[in-house]
Amino acid sequence: MSNKLMKKLTLIILFNFVIHFFVNAEALPQNDENIHLGVASCASSTCHGSIVPRSSSRVLQNEYITWSRKDAHAQAYKTLLTEESKKIANKLGLKSAETAKVCLDCHSDNVASNMRGERFQIDDGIGCESCHGGAEHYIKSHTNRKVERLVNINKGLYPSDNPVKRSRLCLSCHLGNKDKFASHDIMGAGHPRLAFELDTFGLLQPLHFKVDDDYKKYKWSGDSYITWVYGQLGASLETIKLIKNKIVEQNTLFPEIALFDCHSCHHEMSDLKWTKEKGQGFKPGTIRLNDGNFKMLLAIAATTSFNDKFHQNIKAIVDSLNDKNQLVKVLDVFSEDINTLQAYIEEQSVAQRKKTTQQVLHQILKMGKKGEFSDYISAEQTVMAIDLLINALDKRATFDTEINKLFSLVDNENSFHAQDFILALNDISKRF
After folding, report:
1. Which residues pair with 289 in a beta bridge?
2. Does the N-terminal or the C-terminal CB of the chain have fewer CB atoms within 10 Å?
């Protein structure tokens, strides 16, 4: 083995260790050990509460106004007060949605009572410290230009610019983790099915920061393609953890069905959905895993030497669903391979990523034409991916009509038709 290859493999192994240690060991803001002072502590007009953005500061200083007036996260707690939420809580036997931990964990900054400052209010919803961490120790120093960013991070500021950690943070609510999860019981009571994609969902929210030269100097920044890749890697890793926690480790009669494809069961008995193409390795009657993110990984891996490995991993998961011991082994191998792919992508240059963007898009279209996204959840992920990848290639205007059609086809999961979706992907492929 050459010294160059040995050095590269050593770096990959070291990177995997760092990712495993820091990403898994670092507490998310809701579980950090710092007092959460409350949104009011950030809302002063001389801090983040300016009516208009300011150019004399490193930050815009109107972050509070942007959040409170335009960001859906500010309304998260208020959602719990609606009639729909009251009905869900009643069906679940909860006293009220706005006081139930299972609801507050994702609809507010639900830190322990002894970690709440004097100005903290639970009804602020998903506020500043929900994402940036308890401000007890960094609230004064983070405004000082002379204080390095790493110092503030060590004081509790969550590095939400880091795509790996941002992905894990967002997914803790938009997918769930071992501590909080929109279970099948919750969805059965009326809670909407969760869907998420890091780049698309990030762009849908009003930005309260500006990615200028100053931002790039101190923080991570990347285009839609690489943000999407990190999001898919993160979602797949978190899904693997959930499968372990909710299916392997729980000795219940039924596994956590929310981790499976809803439409495997939720259709009319006369609507016989299974075909060889749609089955994709599953035999008739099988409840399919919710594997939309895994499918996107296959497209990403297809441009690398990991292609065969990832296909083998996903097939092995399917084959091991009835053997918990074997399933754990398979999931562990898959996790390691995802981390190694992440290390490989981290080493790519901007020029390589630009080339890869087009290759991944072609792979998604190729898979789509073969019917590999015939289930609704995969189709939903596919549409968001195609939209951002075409946008990253500066061809959004050229394909505006086709992309709008794709979005209309996945607008309603109850009226989704796989064949129409395949034909629409064919139309884009022919013109690309």
Report:
1. 260
2. N
Residue 62 has a CB neighbour count (10 Å cut-off) of 18
> Six-digit token pair at 330?
């398979």
Q: What's the burial of 130, exposed, middle or buried (CB within 10 Å: 0-12/13-18/19+)?
A: buried
Token code pair at residue 424: 């629409």
Selection from 35, 33, 20, 178 nearest residue 117 by Cα: 35
Q: Encode pLDDT of 38-80 as tens digits.
A: 999 999 988 999 999 888 788 889 999 999 999 999 999 999 9
Considering only CA atoms, which of 164, 161, 172, 140 is closest in space to residue 29? 172
Q: How far is CA 66 from CA 60, 130, 160, in A?
A: 10, 16, 18
Residues in contact with 424: Cβ distance below 8 Å, sequence separation at least 6, in sequence order: 402, 405, 406, 409
Copy the structure tokens of residue 292: 């939309």
Q: What CA–CA distance (Å, rounded) separates 46 from 336?
A: 46
How many CB atoms are closer than 10 A to CB 244?
18
pLDDT in tens, 197-234: 999 999 999 999 999 998 999 999 999 999 999 999 99
Residue-range domain boundaries for the chain: 1-28+163-432, 29-74+109-157
In 10 A of CB 412, how many CB atoms? 9
**Which of 18-27, 31-40, 250-259, 279-288 is most confident?**
31-40
**Cβ(240)–Cβ(177) below 8 Å:** no
What is the identity of the amino acid at 168? R
Spell 256-283 as b/e; 16+ CB within 10 A means b.
bbbbbbbbbeeeeeeeeeeeeeeebebe
Compute the distance between CA of residue 386 and CA of residue 199 in angstroms, rounded to an integer. Answer: 12
Token couple for 63: 């972050």
Residues 6+ apart with CB under 8 A from 162: 220
Tokens of 120: 């903290």
Query: What residue has token string 């994609």?
Result: 197
Q: What angle do CA 299, 305, 310 make, to 5 degrees?
A: 50
Residue 14 amino acid letter: L
**Secondary structure of residue 260 in the 3-state scheme:** strand
Q: Are 332 and 296 in contact (CB under 8 A)?
A: no
- Res 279 pLDDT > 60: no
Give the whole-angstrom CA distance, residue 148 versus residue 88. Answer: 46
pLDDT grade for 281, boundaries at 50, 70 and 90: low
- Report the C-alpha gap between 358 and 391 in whole angstroms: 11
Dist. CA 139–CA 135, nearest whole Å: 5
pTM of the model: 0.90
